[in-house]
Design a protein that fits this description.
Strands 3-4-12-9-10-11 form a six-stranded mixed β-sheet, sandwiched between helices. The chain has a five-stranded parallel β-sheet with strand order 8-5-6-7-13. It is 44% helix and 15% strand. By secondary structure, it is an alpha/beta fold. The protein is globular, with a radius of gyration of 20 Å. The relative contact order is 0.14. The chain has 20 helices and 13 strands. It binds pyridoxal-5'-phosphate (PLP). The site of pyridoxal-5'-phosphate (PLP) has 16 residues, from helix 12.
């Protein structure tokens, strides 16, 4: 498989080069030069395959020759060695729980896959690679966990200080070893901008061997297709699923659309956004206007200029009509999110996290005119990660698993940073 840049200036790259680079040199995102079509016999008989077999079949064409097949199999099986249950919460609505990995959020899958691929690729390099990552909360923890102690890899995480939950902060700042954390006096968008500027900086690029572990990296982006196959496998007897995807940077939902283009049967996709409504506005006006992000209780989706949206535009550039029929987008307020967490908990005792709750409200809005549709919410994080938000809403305490309690007792290790790029650059050069 070859990957081209969405800016069309940089030369094409294979999976290895695109993974190591993260962003193409012309600052475009890498995109596969064709979308593999899965055989109908495979898709129609998914229940006869194991998760590992499905995941390998889906990802292998994208990786190509650069990782031997038996090693890729091992990477895949380590990536997904936990459960992805589809749990019914009410009639025709179920939750695909993507939070059973080590950091309790769906980003574990992409981070585990990417760290193992990169670990394999740097084995034959003579210098350390520095992974730069901006996080609104969950990416950083998944990346810290996935890359912890991987030889040849140094990780620098930037997070917006005071804008992540206490569990997220503990996950971000307590690893040590090859993981360094910067607490930035700014927003997620500022962090993302600092990382982008670092990649564009000629002096840094000359002195450091850098890559990104944000969802723009194809090795994080592509394995997210697995979720949709696992959901389809578990609900195969019923009607086609409507997927409601809590969306921020649009990596997850664009991977779902890619799975659809490969032949996965899906009724409809819903981009469930919080008050950061750039894509919902685009879907009604046709104009894409990035904005400053605003703070919400679903903080991992506080993104004002979703990086991966260009991949959706790329996928449907010749079929804008099809995209209009396949994808809807909703912007959900914090008040609606809070009401949904409370209602669902009181009625069913199922506890949604704030991101899943945005997905729930958006799904309800979409299916209100067609009650026979079968909806699947992608539950992207364990509610305990947001216990500080959730406990006052349900007026009850959320049980904190022991692994998390232990984490909260560890010593915080992080460096304060302003949004001043010169300071950030000095920090990187002096490490
Ligand atoms: C990152 C994240 C999202 C948004 O996913 P994107 O792929 O950026 O759209 C949603 N929910 C949670 C819990 C997240 O961590």
């Amino acid at each position: 498989m070859r990957y081209y840049s969405t800016n069309h200036i940089s030369p094409v790259a294979d999976f290895k080069e695109a993974t190591i680079r993260g962003l193409a040199p012309d600052k475009g995102l890498y995109f596969p030069d064709h979308i593999p079509k899965l055989p109908a016999t495979f898709v129609n008989n998914l229940d006869q395959y194991s998760k590992e077999e499905i995941a390998c079949k889906v990802i292998a064409p994208y990786v190509g020759e650069v990782i031997p097949q038996n090693h890729l199999q091992q990477i895949v099986s380590e990536t997904i060695n936990f459960d992805f249950p589809l749990v019914n919460i009410e009639e025709n609505i179920s939750s695909l729980e993507l939070f059973h990995g080590p950091t309790l959020a769906f980003k574990d899958i992409g981070a585990r896959f990417m760290s193992r691929c990169l670990g394999y690729f740097v084995k034959d390099q003579d210098r350390k690679i520095t992974v730069l990552v901006a996080t609104s909360g969950d990416t950083g923890s998944a990346v810290a966990n996935g890359f912890y102690d991987v030889p040849g890899v140094d990780v620098v995480i930037l997070f917006p200080g005071g804008k992540v939950s206490s569990i997220q902060e503990a996950q971000l700042t307590t690893s040590g070893k090859n993981i360094s954390t910067l607490e930035v006096d700014g927003t997620f968008d500022d962090c993302q901008e600092m990382v982008k500027t670092a990649f564009a900086d000629k002096e840094l690029a000359g002195k450091l061997f850098m890559t990104s572990a944000n969802s723009i990296n194809i090795a994080r982006w592509l394995p997210q297709q697995f979720y949709y196959f696992f959901a389809y496998q578990q609900g195969k007897e019923s009607s086609l699923p409507v997927f409601s995807v809590p969306s921020g940077n649009f990596g997850n939902i664009s991977a779902g659309l890619l799975a659809y283009k490969s032949g996965l049967p899906v009724q409809h996709f819903i981009a469930a956004c919080n008050a950061n409504d750039v894509v919902p506005a685009y879907m009604t006006t046709g104009k894409y206007c990035p904005k400053k992000s605003v703070r919400t209780i679903s903080n991992a989706m506080d993104v004002g200029d979703p990086s991966n949206f260009v991949r959706i535009q790329e996928m449907f550039k010749n079929e804008t009509g099809l995209l209009g029929n396949l994808l809807s987008a909703f912007s959900i307020s914090d008040a609606e999110t809070i009401a949904a967490i409370n209602d669902v908990y009181k009625k069913t005792s199922y506890l949604l996290d704030p991101h899943g709750a945005v997905g729930y409200v958006a799904l309800k809005k979409y299916i209100q005119n067609n009650k026979s549709l079968r909806g699947v919410i992608l539950e992207t994080a364990h509610p305990v990660k947001f216990f500080d938000v959730i406990e006052p809403i349900i007026e009850a305490s959320v049980k904190i698993p022991e692994v998390v309690q232990n984490l909260l007792r560890l010593k915080k290790q992080s460096t304060k940073m302003t949004t001043d790029f010169v300071r950030f650059k000095d920090y990187l050069l002096s490490r």
